[in-house]
């Protein structure tokens, strides 16, 4: 065991550097997922029949196709049409769109939870519908989304390892390189990867907990979320 | 004469149910009118038809010389001039009392934040809640929330404020503080159209009481006249009943 640790030690800096690439991919895909997910949620709630249906089809597609299949489609698909796509871009788009479909349902639920009286009050003072959505509904809906969103975050952190399949130089690939150079280190290499994700998920959840506390407002939380209300 | 609001032959159906069947009246600048009537008579619907929160099926409404009900009218510009106070307050729950009062001046009128803050503090002062500026709606009592919502309407310097049963959701001991604010507004000359069961308020400040039943105005007139010598039997019965039920808080 001690010998194993000594043998794997030289590989650890490379493995950690590779983890940073997972974090980069995570940030990129979560931003794509957040922006697209918000738009999809808004279209589903306010988009009317045509745009609402398009948004539902989008959501259905990206929630139904396995992540690995999406990755291959985005990586091997574009070159067929003469478009060059990096493995980073392919992974960002495939996993980002997939996450947007899940995030859209978190946001949609939160938007629908916002009482209709809020919208009515905003309209009654002369706000346009769009302005009312942006200034009144979304700020409330995003706050209500934090617990669900934290869950989605923990899920996509792990999805970044799938990018390994399209030759992306992330942490799994790094572990694989260790294994290829010394097969007896395979177990330790994957334990190291597991530790990386334990830390990432912990840090992510702690950060989201901080965000939730920072934005907490008395009387504004998902029904039954169990969070303590500090109202008088 | 300074006609501020003219409502002409408003009709509204929900499905097969005819809620309003031809309602007409006028308000002069500075008038306080109180609408009373049994529940389900279309009083709230009438208020919502005035600022088009609910579109009327037929009929027209003017604010001064502008037709609100005309499809070409920019309704947001009209609504910015008409305050609306809801039965269940509808304060924005993610904003403090100050934020609630400040948001329309900044987002609708484009007022600078510093100026809007000063204005909002003045309006909170006017309803006696300057010390609660930093509190969120959930931290306020119902009466305080309703006073903030009145301050929120006032911050837009409206030509008219519509009140939709402003005290019906309040515990009895909180009704007085809201009515006091409304009475002082009426005395300052604010034009107010109020749906309420509070006959004490009506007697104290209403220029006219409008009695509605089954989608029409049955009778209207100064409070003293309606209480002492109503033309219709139903008006007298109803006034007697609600005075008995709700008493006179003011």
Characterize the structure shown.
- The complex is a heterodimer of chains A (232) and B (250).
- With 232 residues, chain A is mainly alpha-helical.
- Helix content of chain A is 78%, strand content 0%.
- Chain A has nine helices and no strands.
- The longest helix of chain A has 35 residues, at 12-46.
- In chain B, helix 3 crosses helix 4 (113-126) and helix 4 (113-126) crosses helix 5.
- In chain B, the strands form two sheets. Chain B has a six-stranded mixed beta sheet, with helices on both faces. Chain B has a four-stranded antiparallel beta sheet with strand order 2-1-4-5, with helices on one face.
- By secondary structure, chain B is an alpha/beta fold.
- The model of chain B has no long low-confidence stretch (mean pLDDT 91).
- In chain B, 38% of the residues lie in helices and 25% in strands.
- In chain B, a hairpin with a 2-residue loop joins strand 9 (208-213) and strand 10 (216-221).
- Chain B contains nine helices and ten strands.
- The chains are: A mainly alpha (232), B alpha/beta (250).
**Strand-pairing-aware structural class of chain B:** alpha/beta
Q: Tally the beta strands of chain A.
A: 0
Count of helices of chain B? 9
Multimeric status of the protein: heterodimer
Side-by-side strand order of the widest sheet of chain B: 6-7-8-3-9-10
Quick check: average pLDDT of chain A?
A: 86
Return Rg of chain A in Å: 21 Å
- Residues in β-strands, percent of chain B: 15-25%
Mean pLDDT of chain B: 91
Question: How do the strands and helices of this protein lay out in sequence?
Answer:
The complex is a heterodimer of chains A (232) and B (250).
Chain A: H1 2-8, H2 12-46, H3 48-64, H4 67-80, H5 87-113, H6 116-124, H7 129-159, H8 171-181, H9 186-215
Helix pairs in contact in A: 2-3, 2-5, 2-8, 3-5, 4-5, 5-7, 6-7, 7-9, 8-9
Chain B: E1 3-14, E2 17-28, E3 32-36, H1 43-50, E4 58-63, E5 66-67, H2 75-79, E6 82-85, H3 97-107, H4 113-126, H5 142-154, E7 160-164, H6 172-187, E8 192-195, H7 199-205, E9 208-213, E10 216-221, H8 223-228, H9 233-246
Parallel strand pairs in B: 3-8, 3-9, 6-7, 7-8
Antiparallel strand pairs in B: 1-2, 1-4, 4-5, 9-10
């Amino acid at each position: 065991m001690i010998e194993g640790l000594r043998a794997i030690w030289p590989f650890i800096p490379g493995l950690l550097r590779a983890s940073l690439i997972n974090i980069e991919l995570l940030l990129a895909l979560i931003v794509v997922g957040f922006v697209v997910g918000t738009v999809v949620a808004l279209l589903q709630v306010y988009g009317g029949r045509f745009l609402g249906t398009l948004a539902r089809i989008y959501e259905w597609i990206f929630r139904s196709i396995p992540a690995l299949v999406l990755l291959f489609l985005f990586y091997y698909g574009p070159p067929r049409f003469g478009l060059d796509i990096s493995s980073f871009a392919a992974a960002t788009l495939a996993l980002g769109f997939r996450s947007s479909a899940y995030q859209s349902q978190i946001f949609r639920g939160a938007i629908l939870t916002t009482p209709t009286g809020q919208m009515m009050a905003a309209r009654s003072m002369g706000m346009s519908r769009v302005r009312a959505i942006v200034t009144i509904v979304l700020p409330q809906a995003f706050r209500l989304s934090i617990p669900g969103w934290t869950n989605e975050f923990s899920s996509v952190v792990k999805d970044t390892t799938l990018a390994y399949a399209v030759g992306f130089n992330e942490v799994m690939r790094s572990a694989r390189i260790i294994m290829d150079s010394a097969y007896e280190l395979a177990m330790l290499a994957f334990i190291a990867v597991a530790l990386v994700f334990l830390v990432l998920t912990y840090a992510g959840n702690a950060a989201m907990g901080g965000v939730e506390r920072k934005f907490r407002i008395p009387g504004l939380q998902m029904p039954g979320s169990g969070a303590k209300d500090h109202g008088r | 004469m300074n006609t501020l609001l003219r409502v002409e032959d408003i009709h509204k159906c929900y499905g097969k149910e005819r809620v309003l069947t031809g309602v007409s009246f006028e308000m002069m600048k500075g008038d306080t009118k109180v609408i009373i009537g049994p529940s389900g008579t279309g009083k709230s619907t009438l208020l919502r038809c005035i600022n088009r929160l609910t579109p009327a099926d037929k009929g027209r409404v003017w604010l001064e010389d502008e037709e609100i009900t005309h499809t070409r009218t920019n309704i947001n510009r009209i609504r910015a001039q008409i305050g609306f106070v809801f039965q269940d307050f509808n304060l924005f729950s993610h904003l403090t009392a100050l934020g609630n009062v400040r948001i329309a001046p900044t987002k609708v009128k484009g007022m600078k934040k510093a100026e809007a803050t000063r204005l909002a503090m003045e309006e909170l002062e006017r309803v006696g809640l300057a010390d609660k500026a930093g509190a969120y709606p959930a931290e306020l009592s119902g009466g305080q929330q309703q006073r903030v919502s009145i301050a929120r309407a006032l911050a837009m310097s409206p030509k008219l404020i519509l009140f939709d049963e402003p005290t019906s959701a309040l515990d009895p001991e909180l009704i007085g503080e809201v009515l006091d604010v409304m009475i002082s507004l009426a005395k300052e000359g604010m034009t107010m159209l109020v749906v309420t069961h509070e006959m004490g308020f009506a007697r104290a400040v209403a220029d006219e009481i409008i009695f509605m039943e089954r989608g029409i105005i049955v009778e209207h007139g100064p409070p003293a006249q309606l209480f002492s010598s109503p033309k219709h039997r139903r008006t007298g019965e109803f006034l007697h009943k609600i005075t008995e039920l709700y008493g006179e808080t003011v």
